[in-house]
Amino acid sequence: MRILFVLLAAHAIGDYVLQPAAIFQWKRTVLPILLLHAAIWSAVIALALVYLQRFGWWKLIISFVLHGLIDYWKSYLNPVPIAMHIVVIDQMLHMLQLILVGIEDDDIKM
Fold this sequence. Notes:
With 110 residues, the protein is mainly alpha-helical. It has one domain (2-103). 75% of the residues lie in helices and 0% in strands. It is built from five helices and no strands. The protein has helices at residues 2-17, 21-26, 31-51, 57-76, 84-102. The chain starts with a helix and ends in an 8-residue tail after the last helix. The mean pLDDT is 90.
């Protein structure tokens, strides 16, 4: 439960607190701004994973790539304003992403 709480808090910080209005607006049309946002978000997730003693370089790379792709899908391929169902799908994909990078082999008991 602690792992989920820490990763959700990191997600909220990286995706909302550290995303000023200018980045939110410009990432829709300026690819380097979208990549900057993905890098900031991934760095926050990486710090959370270090705190949880679950960091791995592959997790940082996966976080950056997946977050960038998800936000690209949401920002570039959907009309403005974005429909609520697109926002829900976006957040569900981010939650799956957090599960992917948060899980460890010893978490899976068979």
